[in-house]
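EI: anyone free to look at a 234-residue chain?
SC: sure, send it
EI:
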Amino acid sequence: MADCLSLNHVSAGYAETVVLEDLSLTLPEGGTLAVLGRNGVGKTTLMATVMGHTTVHSGDISFLGKNLRTMPVHRRAASGIGYVPQEREIFHSLTVEENLTVAEQPGEWNIARVYELFPRLAERRRNMGNHLSGGEQQMLAVGRALMSNPRLILMDEPLEGLAPVIIDLLVAAFHRLREADGLTIVLVEQYARLALEFAERAIVLDRGRIVHDGPSEELRNAPDRLAALFGVVG
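SC: here you go
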């Protein structure tokens, strides 16, 4: 199976500040990766680095064999990388449908498929972005990323602050994306058990370095090890 995403000895951060240090990983096409760790260890910086929002001091990043090191953000998105940022960043002055169509690129994912995945968005298609609940905004952020018809989707703490019923709905949608659509998915999540149940593989970051990398099952079956690596387990 070909590599979808590869980071080779990457050090990156913001301006002169280095957050990720000598980080290497590969993820095959169709693979799922959970990124775990305490707050402030570099999880969001890892996602931002793949998208081109940080300063890369050394190392190489490739996506489907293309070197991303000098590729601008908009070209990374157009090349097939979808991004669901932690802050959601939906357009409050646009309707639900406008938020979706602004990201549209040719492919299998379209308005109808997003509405089928998230019927609540169809019900609120004419609502403005700032008239949605937190859970609806998160569905919209995921749906907007899918409208770009990505091969790889990066999701940064998509379950944060949501009610259990919404978490269940989103997790079911993520499973569908993995199983039916074969998307390559990187999931940053504080709910460690949910992330480990979803992803085949997990890494744990600490101070910008990978301190654990292996099958998710290993950490699911070793709660003491998980607690030692991650702190309080959700």
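EI: Residues 21 and 135 are 34 Å apart (CA to CA).
SC: 👍
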